[in-house]
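dumping this here so i dont lose it
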């Protein structure tokens, strides 16, 4: 379980998140919504340990985040950032092989097949479209062994067919894992999720 309670986050004297509480359990697919600037990415960065809360508590599987070694944190949650920057021309195949490949919800083959990444395995990541790079980023995150997956705007560069395929894949993964998916555009999406957390 990932739990955040009464979390507040300031940048300087600007309050970005004010007393936010929530949780993510295994077996659920949760939509995290809110308008631009409402703090969705900030919340994921706090859960990811890239930012430290100004106050409040954040626990992963019952332990305070700061008490868990970074290597162990990575086994608990895997995050797909809103913008993953690729700056070296690795082939997609090489990028995916860098990830551990054991004890996942789905096999690597199933993940890359469902995401439509199989056809681009031998392409240089730098020569792919934004939507294709986003699919690779999602594959990198989902291939990592973890209990929870947090995906920041995974649909933002996807066409309608890809959105449907990705949703199907996420529903499959959520049978055994916990998933939280950030989206600022929830039209037609919410019916695919078990519940919605709204930031305002
Ligand atoms: N690096 C930064 N420096 C200063 N302020 C920041 C920084 N990153 C975000 N903020 C501020 O924090 C607030 C929340 O930003 P955040 O990126 O979490 O929003 P979001 O809900 O993810 O928005 P979006 O839908 O546009 O992705 C915004 O008001 C933003 O201006
Ligand atoms: Mg964001």
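and the seq i came up w/
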């Amino acid at each position: 379980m990932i739990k955040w309670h009464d979390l507040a986050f300031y940048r300087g004297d600007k309050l970005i998140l004010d007393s936010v509480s929530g949780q993510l359990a295994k077996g659920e697919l949760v939509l995290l919504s809110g308008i631009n600037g409402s703090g969705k990415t900030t919340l994921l960065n706090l859960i990811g340990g890239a930012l430290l809360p100004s106050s409040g508590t954040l626990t992963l599987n019952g332990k305070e985040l700061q008490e868990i070694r970074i290597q162990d944190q990575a086994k608990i949650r895997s995050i797909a950032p809103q913008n993953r920057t690729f700056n070296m021309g690795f082939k997609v195949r090489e990028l995916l092989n860098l990830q551990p490949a054991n004890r996942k919800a789905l096999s690597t083959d199933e993940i890359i097949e469902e995401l439509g990444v199989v056809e681009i395995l031998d392409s240089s990541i730098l020569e792919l479209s934004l939507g294709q790079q986003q699919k690779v980023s999602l594959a990198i995150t989902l291939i990592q062994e973890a209990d929870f997956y947090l995906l920041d705007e995974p649909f933002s560069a996807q066409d309608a067919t890809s959105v449907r395929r990705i949703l199907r894949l996420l529903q499959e993964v959520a049978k055994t894992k916990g998933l939280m998916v950030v989206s600022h555009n929830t039209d037609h999406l919410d019916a695919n999720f078990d519940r919605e957390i709204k930031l305002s």
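Residues 40-41, 82, 152 surround magnesium ion (ligand 2) (CB under 6 Å).
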